[in-house]
Amino acid sequence: MNAKQKTRIILDQLAEMFPDAHCELVHQNPFELTIAVLLSAQCTDETVNKVTATLFQKYKRPEDYLAVPLDELEQDIRRIGLFRSKASNIQKLCRILIDKYDGEVPNTYEGLIELPGVGRKTANVVMSIAFGVPAIAVDTHVDRVSKRLALAKPDDTVLQVEQKLMKLVPREEWTMTHHRLIFFGRYHCKAQNPQCPLCPLLELCKEGKQRMKNPVKPKQRGKLA
To answer: Catalytic pick from 76, 86, 121, 143?
Structure first.
């Protein structure tokens, strides 16, 4: 079985497991999506959605984020990890949107990655979801699953993982594959305690088969005195 054939089996199985995989960040437009993805770095989508439920009621446009002191915005997103740097980046991002893009989120990859706080992953998410351009954004779930299934090497960088997935996956399936890999990693192939005994991809997963041969025993608690 070559790499393309293996990838096809994986994609078909992911489609069967998660046919309705989608972006779980709640948003109404490209601007809200950009802010939500920026906030999601090193933070769960669940926490981001709790914060943006009120944040997006208070701040509708880039101008709104610049109309308040930085410390007020920091307090509004305090539950988010790295909230101080993210608040600063949001205000800088909004200033660029107003000065250079008439308050709109740019619909090009080059325009997005120049925005403070917007890296390659965020740009790919916005391009694919907001503007319908096929892309594979590599977050922690996509990175972990790709390496466990040997679609990428264990020591590959995020960029290398993205490039390998782009070669293996048909372009028209990039965006959906991104969502399904995230769902697979978030709900099945978790970082801790992956569901290897129930995994339909076990035969294609070297790490999973190794885990089954040498299961990790739960730590025993010490006896109380």
So the answer is: 121
